Amino acid sequence: MFSGVLQKMTSINDNPxxxxxxxxxxxxxxxxxxxxxxxxxxKGYCCLSCSGNIEIFANGFxxxxxxxxxxxxxxxxxxxxxxAHLDQEDRDLDFEKEMQLQPHILYFSMTSGLKxxxxxxxxxxxxxxxxxxxxxxxxxxxxxxxxAGLAEVxxxxxxxxxxxxxxxxxxxxxxxxxxxxxKNALDKLSNDLKKYKSGNDEVYKFNYNVLDYPKSVxxxxxxxxxxxxxxxxxxxxxxxxxxxxxVFNVRSNEGYVVEIGLK
Length: 263
Ligand SMILES: [Zn+2]
Description:
The protein folds into two domains: 2-67 and 210-262, no CATH class; 74-205, no CATH class. The model has no long low-confidence stretch (mean pLDDT 97). It has helices spanning 30-33, 63-68, 74-77, 93-100, 124-130, 145-156, 165-170, 178-188, 191-194, and strands spanning 2-5, 10-12, 18-22, 27-29, 37-45, 56-58, 61-62, 104-110, 114-120, 135-142, 204-205, 218-220, 227-236, 239-242, 246-249, 256-262. The strands form four sheets. A seven-stranded mixed beta sheet has the order 1-16-5-13-14-15-12. The chain is an alpha+beta fold. β13 and β14 form a beta hairpin. The protein is built from nine helices and 16 strands. Zinc ion (ZN) is lined by residues 47, 49-50, 52, 61-62, 64-65.
């Protein structure tokens, strides 16, 4: 029996990708759990910011922390709202400087279809794997989050920034040629941003350990049920995929205290 606070799985970009579900004093190698029955039961809450046993509101945080923690400021989801480069505080200037004032990329990834996004250079492979991308390419390399956000806003008129998680999990992907699409996208950007073009045209590829993709999916969560059961047939993005076509998004269940049994 494994127990602890759920947090998103750690991934290792191997072929196939390896996932580890880590707790304070033990861990589960998820690829080895494929073909086994998993039983997850909810025992309580542990806010990832204050550690309180308080109902989780979003992103693993209780309501108070969600609205107060510097880790969930508006600039996280909307990079163009970053202000650390102006020395302006949102919730905690030291934290925001550390996170925002470091090299970022604007990228294309292929999740359910083509999507545009922003992430820190240090975090890029993890970001792509977490969203279940099968391919990705770097468009721009920028010195901070704000500029990456501006570039993303320019491309949002022509490209989605969202993943259709159902299609990602049923593996119905609208594939496009990323190198070709990178050229098209660079043509659309303003000159101020085009100068950050990345010379790296590598198409990164990701292979997930999924025995059989479901035809349609139904989501389960600890918010709605106290127990999650099923035979694991694969892991993609931050989702566990079960034999009966139900799926469990580990990331959106962060902050729940659970016990997990395997057999
Ligand atoms: Zn809290």
